[in-house]
C-alpha cells in the first residue's frame, strides 16, 4: 500500500498547553484512517499541523500528496452565494475575468455529487448548518486532492446526509484517495474505518484495525475501564419540583403537561421539529406562551421572565450553546460564574472543572476550547448554581464518550441530592438509558409516556404517529 503522508513525532504547544506530544501518523492511499479521541485530545491540532496552518514545534512530515481539509469550524463566506462559495479563491477565469457561465455550469454538478438540492444563487447565510457543511464537502471534492481530511463533518449532519457522505468517502477510497476522518460516532467508525488512531492528551495511545470493538476504542480514549455507558442510578421520587400544565403556544406546541419530581430524570424524546426545544425555552421563560402554567416547587412562574425562573430555582442548558449558553471571549472561570455572579468560591469552581474533566485552564478564554469542552462549561455553570430543576437540551451533542459518562454521573449526583432533571435528547439510547420516564412528543403535542428501559421501537412508534386534529 502506498503511503501518501508520513508524520513522525509531531509535537505542538499552545503556551502552557501541550496539544500534541510526539504523534506518528501514516496516511495511505485507498484507506480511511479514523482519528478518535476525547474533546481536547489534539485531533484538530494534528489536522492543522498536517495542513500547514500551525507549524509543529518538533517532528517531521513527509509526502507530496495535495491536501484538502474540511475543518471543524466552517470556512464559508455567509454573504456570498452557494456557487461563489464553491469556487472561493479559485473562481473559474476567462480572459482574466471571473467566468460566471462556467461557474453556473459546474456548481449544479458539484452539488449533485453530494446530493444537495439547493439553488446555487442562494446566499449561504440562508442555509442550514448541515447544508453549509455539504457545500464545504463539495468544494473539497472539486480540488481532486490526493488526501482528504474531514474534521467532525457528521456532527451536524442528519442520518441521510451522513449515509451520503460515507458513500462518497467509500467511492474516493476506491479511487485511491487517502482519507482522514474524525468523528465521535462509533457506529460510523465501524462502518468505514480501515485503521483507527486513538489520541489521548496529545499522544497516540494505539492504532486499531477495522474490527476493533467499541469497548476497546472507548477504554483507550478515556484511559480507564468504563463499565456502563448509561449509569443511571434511580432514586425514590419526592414532591413535584417542576410542573408544566397545559402549556400552549399556537403554532408551536399544544397542551403540554409534564411533571418532574425530586430525584427524578424525565426525558423528552421526539423527532426534530416536534416542539421539544420550544417547550423547554418557554418553560424557562426565554420565549412566551399563550396558555398554561409552569410551577417550580409549587410556585407559579411569571411567563417570559428568565430572571424569575432562575430565582425560583430553574436552569436551562440550551441546545445552541454558542449562541445562548456562553460568553466565548470570557474565560472558563468567568463563564462558570455567569449564573452565580459574585459567588467567588474558587474551590468549588476548580472542583466542578475537575469533575467535568474540562480540558483547558480556568483562566483560558472559552473560545479556545473544543466544542465538547465548551458544552461541559455550560453544564458546569449550572451545576455551580445548583438549581432545583435543570432542563438539559441535547446536553451531550458533540461531546465525546468519556465526557458523556461524566455528564451522566453529574445528572445522577443532582438527583441523588433531591434535584430534578428534564432531559431533552435526540439520542435515543441516551434518553432511554438515563431517564426514569420518557415523554414522547410529536407535532407539538405529548404523544405518550413510556417507563425507563422502553425500547427504541416503542419510542419511535409514538414519535412518528400522526395526530388527528
Ligand atoms: N488556537 C489555540 N490556542 C490555544 N490552545 C489551543 C488552540 N487550539 C487548540 N488548543 C488546545 O489544544 C488542545 C487540543 O485541542 P484540539 O486539537 O482542538 O482537540 P480536539 O480536536 O481533539 O478536540 C486543547 O487543550 C485545546 O484547548
Ligand atoms: Mg476538534
Counting helices, strands and paired strands, the structural category is alpha/beta
Beta percentage is 25-35%
Identify the bound ligands.
adenosine-5'-diphosphate, magnesium ion
Mean pLDDT metric? 88
InterPro entries: AAA+_ATPase (IPR003593), ABC_carbohydrate_import_ATPase (IPR050107), ABC_transporter-like_ATP-bd (IPR003439), ABC_transporter-like_CS (IPR017871), P-loop_NTPase (IPR027417)
GO molecular function: ATP binding; ATP hydrolysis activity
Keywords: ATP-binding, Nucleotide-binding, Repeat, Transport
Pfam families: ABC_tran
Describe this structure in words.
The chain is α/β, with parallel strands linked by helices. The protein has two domains: 220 residues, P-loop containing nucleotide triphosphate hydrolases (Rossmann fold, 3-Layer(aba) Sandwich), CATH 3.40.50; 224 residues, P-loop containing nucleotide triphosphate hydrolases (Rossmann fold, 3-Layer(aba) Sandwich), CATH 3.40.50.300. 33% of the residues lie in helices and 27% in strands. The protein is built from 16 helices and 21 strands. The strands form five sheets. The chain has a six-stranded mixed sheet with strand order 5-8-9-3-10-11, sandwiched between helices. The protein has a six-stranded mixed sheet with strand order 17-18-19-14-20-21, sandwiched between helices. The chain has a four-stranded antiparallel sheet with strand order 13-12-15-16, with helices on one face. α12 packs across α13. The protein is globular. The N and C termini lie far apart (61 Å). The model has no long low-confidence stretch (mean pLDDT 88). Bound molecules: adenosine-5'-diphosphate and magnesium ion.
Amino acid at each position: 500500500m502506498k503511503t501518501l503522508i508520513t508524520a513522525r513525532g509531531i509535537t505542538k504547544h499552545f503556551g502552557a498547553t501541550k496539544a500534541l506530544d510526539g504523534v506518528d501518523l501514516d496516511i495511505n492511499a485507498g484507506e480511511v484512517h479514523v482519528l478518535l479521541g476525547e474533546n481536547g485530545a489534539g485531533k484538530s491540532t494534528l489536522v492543522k499541523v498536517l495542513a500547514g496552518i500551525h507549524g509543529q514545534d518538533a517532528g517531521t512530515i513527509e509526502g507530496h500528496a495535495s491536501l484538502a481539509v474540511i475543518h471543524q469550524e466552517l470556512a464559508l463566506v455567509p454573504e456570498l452565494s452557494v456557487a461563489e462559495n464553491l469556487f472561493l479563491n479559485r473562481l473559474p477565469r476567462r480572459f482574466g475575468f471571473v467566468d460566471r457561465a462556467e461557474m453556473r455550469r459546474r456548481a449544479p454538478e458539484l452539488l449533485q455529487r453530494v446530493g444537495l438540492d439547493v439553488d446555487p444563487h442562494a446566499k449561504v447565510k440562508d442555509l442550514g448548518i448541515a447544508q453549509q457543511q455539504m457545500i464545504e464537502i463539495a468544494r473539497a471534492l472539486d480540488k481532486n486532492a490526493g488526501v482528504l481530511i474531514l474534521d467532525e463533518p457528521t456532527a451536524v449532519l442528519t442520518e441521510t446526509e451522513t449515509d451520503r457522505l460515507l458513500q462518497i468517502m467509500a467511492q474516493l477510497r476506491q479511487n485511491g484517495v487517502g482519507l482522514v476522518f474524525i468523528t465521535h460516532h462509533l457506529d460510523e467508525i465501524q462502518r468505514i474505518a480501515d485503521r483507527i488512531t486513538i489520541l489521548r492528551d496529545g499522544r497516540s495511545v494505539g492504532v486499531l484495525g477495522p474490527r476493533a470493538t467499541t469497548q476497546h476504542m472507548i477504554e483507550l480514549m478515556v484511559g480507564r475501564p468504563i463499565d456502563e455507558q448509561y449509569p443511571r442510578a434511580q432514586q425514590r421520587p419526592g414532591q413535584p419540583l417542576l410542573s408544566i400544565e397545559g402549556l400552549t403556544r399556537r403554532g408551536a406546541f399544544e397542551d403540554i403537561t409534564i411533571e418532574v419530581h425530586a430525584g427524578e430524570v424525565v426525558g423528552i424524546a421526539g423527532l426534530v421539529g416536534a416542539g421539544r426545544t420550544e417547550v423547554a425555552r418557554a418553560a424557562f421563560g426565554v420565549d412566551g406562551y399563550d396558555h398554561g402554567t409552569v410551577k417550580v416547587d409549587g410556585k407559579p412562574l411569571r411567563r417570559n421572565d428568565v430572571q424569575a425562573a432562575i430565582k425560583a430555582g430553574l436552569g436551562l442548558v440550551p441546545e445552541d450553546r454558542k449562541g445562548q449558553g456562553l460568553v466565548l471571549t470570557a474565560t472558563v472561570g468567568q463563564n462558570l460564574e455567569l449564573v452565580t455572579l459574585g459567588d467567588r468560591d474558587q474551590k468549588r469552581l476548580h472542583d466542578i472543572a475537575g469533575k467535568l474533566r474540562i480540558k483547558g485552564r480556568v483562566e483560558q478564554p472559552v473560545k479556545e476550547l473544543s466544542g465538547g469542552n465548551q458544552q461541559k462549561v455550560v453544564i458546569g455553570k449550572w451545576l455551580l448554581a445548583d438549581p432545583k430543576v435543570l432542563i438539559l437540551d441535547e446536553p451531550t451533542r458533540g461531546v465525546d464518550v468519556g465526557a458523556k459518562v461524566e455528564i451522566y454521573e453529574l445528572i445522577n449526583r443532582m438527583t441523588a441530592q433531591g434535584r430534578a432533571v428534564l432531559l431533552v435528547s435526540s439520542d435515543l439510547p441516551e434518553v432511554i438509558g438515563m431517564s426514569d420516564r420518557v415523554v414522547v412528543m410529536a407535532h407539538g403535542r405529548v404523544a405518550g409516556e413510556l417507563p425507563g428501559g422502553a425500547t427504541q421501537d416503542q419510542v419511535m412508534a409514538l414519535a412518528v404517529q400522526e395526530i388527528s386534529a
